Every structure is written in structure tokens, then in C-alpha cells.
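Justification of computing resources. Each target in the renewal requires a structure prediction run like the one illustrated here; the chain below, 164 residues long, is used simply to show the kind of job we budget for.
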Amino acid sequence: MNKKNKKRDNLDNPDNQLIELKKKIDELETGWQRTQADFANYQKRSEEQKLNIIAAANTDLMLRLTPVLDNFRRAFTHASDDKDPIFLGVKQIEKQLEDILTGEGLKKIEAASGTKFDPNLHEAISFEPNEKVKADHIIAELESGWMFRDKVLKPTKVRVSKGK
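Resulting C-alpha cells:
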């Protein structure tokens, strides 16, 4: 008896047919489960990619809008009359813009005079001798720094004290 005839004889037996069918069902079921898991992973990766693209776009938008807030602040330092209705109106517009951006996750990096210099948050424009401010502490903020969703977009530009 050759191999073909032997296999045919094995399949003629109902018990052998049942065993072969169960093997085939197990094989198909395993393939189906693998395909299902692959599809679930694909969906998860696609969602993560979409969220990453949105986050990158939002970060770029915030980075482009922060100079507008800086320019509002610069303009206010040159205003002659802070009781003028136009000044107050523009101040309200600046506040409204800042509130919207803050609501989206933008945060100003604080750099008040006397604050310890942190190279992760601040960019030192100059180191100057100063008797009133301790060494490695901020003398003055020159330009605002911004964080977006716990990531530094732009460090605060500051003058730093060397001490006495």
C-alpha cells in the first residue's frame, strides 16, 4: 500500500475524519484569534498615532502663539496711560487669549527676581555681579518662557546673578 492509499484509508474511518476536522477547526480558530489580536493592535496603534499628530500640531500652534503674548506684555510696558479705555480693552484681549491657551495646557514659566536659576526652565542671557540677589538666582526676566503639557516649549530668558 502506498502513502496515498494509506491516507485515503485513514480518512475513510469516521473517527479519523473527526480527528482531522477537529485539527482543521483548531487551526482555523487559532488563525482567526491571531487576526483578531492583530486588528486590535492595529486599532490601538492608529489611535496613538492620531493622538501624537494632534499633540504635535497643538505644540506647533502654541509655539507660534506665545510671541503674541510676549508682544502684548511688551506693548503694555510702553503704555503711557493704564486708565485709557483702549489700553484696558487690549489688556482684556490679552487676558482672553492667555485664558484660552492656558485652558489648552499652556503654562507660563515663572522666573521672578530672586528665584533660583534652573537651566531646564531658564536660559541665561547674562551673568552679572549683584549685591542684592544671591549667586545663581534670577535678577530679572527678559522674555517669557512657556511650557505645554509639561514640556518646555521655550525657556524663559533671564539675567542671572554672580553674587558679590
